[in-house]
């Protein structure tokens, strides 16, 4: 039922900024829309780049894995170049490579992969000797492939039909080398018009290790995937780096190999990779390292990954699965954030909203970061940056909307509270006022309940006031009312009105008070004590003492807004009020007189009460017993 806009209590009605239907539609529609926006945001280049960076973070959080001992790296480092260069001439790899190949082959190397390519022929004798060394061992030659061009070794080195592998790598747009090339095999023209397939360099190196275990394994190349025995190697697969700490891998210098200064047992049955460690063009940033790492260690990690058959399940991070995942997380966090909670109904609404925001950040953003890291440890790759962006958008927009609604609702409630304070601020104690502000229903409708009504009037005030000027009369009344008002508020009474020197106080209004009879009598006793203190001060100032009479009655009364739409007061009306006023009229000697109804309610209380007299009350039939309360 809609509130009547013409009602005197219309200002007490709480009208939310959004209706229930509007809040429900907003709570469903907004998360759906923002989830779609989140999916679009996740497809931007910036978010994709950030997601690649989170892969590096997850590698570092997981840490390195044990490396294989049957993969040996031979570094072409600066010391080897200085040691092996001939006099003042520059270092020539082809001149020393035959000795290295021979010594590694004699030590039992499974395959010797050369992570470089020979562009042209040089010294005939040197080239002939290198060709003989290549033909006499399992040597894997490197092939460069870029801009659609394939750069193979000269025909002299290919006469013995050595295996070849593509050494070109493809870093991500940010320069970090994280994945295999998009094409795991390159097809080039071969002899007799046939097409020759050249796999990625580490795939070809790993073939020798696979054949060692399974001689029947074959290598089947396609453009975007390669089958090596039971293993499938897809293009752009994430490299599962075991370690990029060069000390973790079995590593020899090229000079030591040429001179035979190594333990043959390290080489026996191993896949040996010879690669540059000095040239900047052959060094790359990789996920497990903050420094540039020689590319040969990329090949070592990929070979180990193929042999161990360690691959990430990447389907959740690709295509429609990724979009559905991002949309789902954005939607769930959106429902959390856009679920319009009634924050304004709490005293600490702003801190509660901040705590809610903190919980959302921890649960959704922190939770998904933790889950993604744990899944990464189990070789499941899920997107991180996209979901975090989508959830941040949902949480941020939803909680911003709640903040706007909270602010608007708070302003409305503050305005209502100000009007309640203007209405009751000088009539009730602070505790009662705060309770009414919190629950305006208490004064919104006219309620009939049992109340106790107290009237207090100064005796002989008319004669006293006639002897004083108006300013002195006002000062006297202010001082007097200050004392008796504090007594009323001590017992949470409601001051209905001041009429001249008379005050009317009601108990059990506006809040119900089961012990209202006792509160009324205690207030009367307290008024007498406060007045005694005031009279001591007046005596010190040479002023006459004040005497007040108090009448109290209990019974049913109606409490509510009385007046017009434009102007009304919260007051109490009924026969009970009239009767209490008549009783106060009998207190000509300054007594505290109570009705028989009130006396019966206090029979078991520790109060000094005695029968005063039986009287007739104008406007009420029959005779009434009145009782006097004595102040100890």
Q: Please give the number of β-strands.
A: 22
Low-confidence stretches: 1-6
Report the span from N to C terminus. Answer: 54 Å
| Radius of gyration, whole Å | 47 Å
Summed over residues and divided by their number, the pLDDT gives a mean of 88
Strand content: 15-25%
Count of the separate structural domains: 3
The level of helicity is 40-55%
Write down the overall geometry: rod-shaped
Structural class: alpha/beta
Biggest pleated sheet: 8 strands, mixed
Number of helices: 20
Q: What is the topological layout?
A:
Layout: H1 20-42, H2 45-62, E1 71-76, H3 78-84, H4 93-106, E2 111-115, H5 124-135, E3 139-146, E4 149-151, H6 155-158, E5 164-166, E6 185-189, E7 195-199, H7 201-213, E8 219-221, E9 225-228, E10 231-234, E11 250-253, H8 254-258, H9 264-267, E12 271-276, E13 283-285, E14 292-294, H10 295-308, H11 319-338, H12 349-377, H13 385-424, H14 430-438, H15 441-444, E15 447-458, H16 461-466, H17 470-490, E16 494-499, E17 502-507, H18 516-540, E18 548-563, E19 568-573, H19 575-585, E20 592-595, H20 596-601, E21 609-616, E22 623-629
Parallel strand pairs: 1-11, 1-12, 2-3, 2-12, 3-5, 18-20
Antiparallel strand pairs: 3-4, 6-7, 8-9, 9-10, 13-14, 15-17, 15-18, 16-17, 18-19, 20-22, 21-22
Helix pairs in contact: 1-11, 1-13, 2-12, 4-5, 7-10, 11-13, 12-13, 13-14, 17-18
């Amino acid at each position: 039922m809609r509130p009547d806009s013409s009602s005197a209590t219309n200002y007490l009605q709480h009208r939310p900024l959004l209706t229930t239907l509007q809040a429900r539609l907003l709570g469903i529609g907004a998360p759906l829309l923002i989830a779609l926006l989140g999916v679009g945001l996740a497809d931007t280049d910036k978010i994709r780049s950030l997601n690649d960076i989170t892969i590096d973070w997850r590698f570092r959080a997981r840490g390195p894995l044990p490396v294989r001992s049957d993969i040996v790296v031979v570094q072409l480092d600066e010391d080897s170049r200085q040691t092996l260069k001939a006099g003042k001439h520059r270092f020539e790899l082809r001149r020393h490579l035959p000795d290295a190949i021979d010594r590694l082959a004699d030590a039992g190397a499974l395959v010797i992969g050369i992570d470089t390519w020979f562009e042209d022929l040089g010294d005939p004798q040197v080239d002939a000797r290198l060709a003989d060394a290549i033909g006499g061992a399992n040597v894997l030659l490197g092939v460069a492939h870029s801009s659609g061009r394939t750069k193979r070794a000269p025909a002299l080195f290919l006469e013995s039909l050595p295996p070849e592998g593509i050494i070109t790598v493809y870093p991500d747009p940010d320069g970090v080398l994280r994945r295999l090339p998009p094409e795991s095999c390159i097809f080039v023209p071969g002899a007799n018009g046939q097409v020759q397939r050249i796999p990625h360099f580490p795939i070809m190196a790993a073939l020798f290790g696979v054949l060692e275990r399974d001689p029947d394994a074959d290598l089947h190349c396609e453009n975007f995937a390669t089958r090596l025995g039971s293993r499938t190697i897809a293009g752009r697969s994430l490299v599962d780096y075991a370690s990029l700490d060069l000390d973790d891998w079995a590593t020899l210098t090229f000079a030591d190999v040429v001179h035979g200064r190594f333990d043959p047992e390290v080489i026996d049955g191993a896949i040996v990779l010879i690669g540059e460690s000095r040239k900047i063009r052959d060094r790359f940033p990789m996920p497990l390292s903050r420094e540039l790492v020689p590319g040969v260690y990329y090949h070592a990690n990929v070979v180990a990954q193929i042999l161990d058959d360690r691959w990430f399940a990447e389907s959740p991070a690709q295509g429609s699965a990724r979009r559905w995942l991002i949309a789902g997380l954005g939607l769930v966090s959106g429902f959390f954030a856009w679920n319009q909670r009634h924050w304004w109904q709490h005293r600490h609404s702003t801190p509660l909203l901040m705590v809610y925001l903190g919980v959302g950040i921890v649960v959704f953003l922190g939770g998904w970061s933790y889950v993604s890291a744990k899944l990464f440890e189990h070789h499941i790759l899920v997107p991180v940056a996209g979901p975090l962006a989508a959830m941040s958008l949902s949480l941020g927009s939803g909680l911003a909307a709640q903040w706007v609604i909270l602010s608007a609702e708070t302003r409305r409630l503050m305005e209502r509270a100000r009007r309640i304070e203007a209405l009751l601020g000088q009539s009730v104690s602070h505790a009662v006022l705060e309770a009414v502000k919190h629950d305006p229903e208490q004064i919104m409708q006219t309620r009939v309940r049992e109340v106790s009504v107290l009237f207090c009037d100064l005796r002989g005030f008319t004669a006293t006031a006639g002897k004083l000027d108006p300013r002195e009369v006002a000062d006297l009344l202010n001082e007097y009312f200050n004392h008796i008002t504090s007594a009323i508020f001590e017992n949470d009474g409601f001051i209905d009105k001041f009429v001249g020197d008379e005050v009317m106080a009601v108990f059990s209004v506006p809040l119900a008070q089961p012990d209202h009879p006792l509160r009324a009598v205690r207030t009367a006793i307290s008024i007498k004590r406060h007045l005694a203190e005031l009279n001591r001060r007046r005596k010190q100032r040479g002023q006459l003492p004040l005497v007040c009479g108090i009448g109290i009655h209990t019974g049913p009364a109606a409490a509510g807004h009385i007046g017009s739409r434009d102007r009304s007061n919260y007051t109490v009306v009924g026969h009970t009020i009239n009767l209490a006023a008549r009783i106060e009229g009998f207190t000509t000697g300054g007594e505290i007189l109570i009705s028989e109804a009130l006396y019966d309610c206090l029979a078991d209380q520790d109060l000094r009460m005695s029968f005063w007299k039986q009287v007739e009350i104008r406007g009420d039939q029959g005779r009434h017993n009145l009782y006097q309360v004595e102040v100890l």
